[in-house]
Design brief:
245 residues, alpha/beta, binds ligand GEK
Length: 245
Amino acid sequence: MPKPPRKDIIYSRPHDMLVDFKFNEHVADVFPDMIRRSVPGYENLITLIGLMAQEYVTAGSNIYDLGCSLGAATLSMRHRIPHTNCRMIAVDNSSAMLERCEKIIGRDTSPVPVELVCADIQDINIQNASMVVLNFTLQFLSPDQRLSLLHKIYQGLLPGGVLVLSEKLVFSDNDEQALLDTLHLDFKKANGYSDMEISQKRSALENVLIPDTLQQHQDRLHAAGFVTAYQWFQCFNFASLIVIK
Ligand code: GEK
């Protein structure tokens, strides 16, 4: 029997010295609880990414989940892919995440093969892809490395293939930023995070998660070669684009 997800209490005690956030074993152990209580709309996104796989994945193609963590998007797509001759490639550079992901995927009985790769997403080959998912991963790359990854994805996608890009956003309009910050804070408090947990996590993520505006994303996607990028989802300051080659 799989164990129930453990509660995220990582920042519930004062940390003397706050170090930058890392996807280590402590985070991997509580990750489902952490992301569900921190990212509004996450569970909907996971379900809907599965539906997109049903629509866009083509026979004999590859599907990439870049920054797969525990494989939630991989599994959602795997259950919906209407072909068995596809190959899924789930990539994460956190061995703690990938070890747990392997166990979760191992318990799943869907017939579509999944290859787990412990690597930096900047170092892998992308080819013959009908679908690539970056579900809250691009924001963890340093901003100057983001365009070359998107360019590589563009090159590896088949014509008509899709990239799903979900990110935390920042807003150039100060009022919009303040409003969505407040609502996100309310969301985390309503999910049981204390002021101290929220503020310690915010500091730990400061140099690690660097969000862009929607316009920066659109401009970068165009620079990478994509012409069509539609925003299809937003929940407070978290959004997702479907980008079609
Ligand atoms: C989900 N997509 O559940 N190379 C490989 N992996 C990376 C890199 C990199 N350069 N940088 C970060 N990661 C998942 C959620 S979480 C989002 C994605 C969050 C990995 C990192 O180890 C972590 O597992 C994941 O990207 C980001 O749908 O925690 O907010």
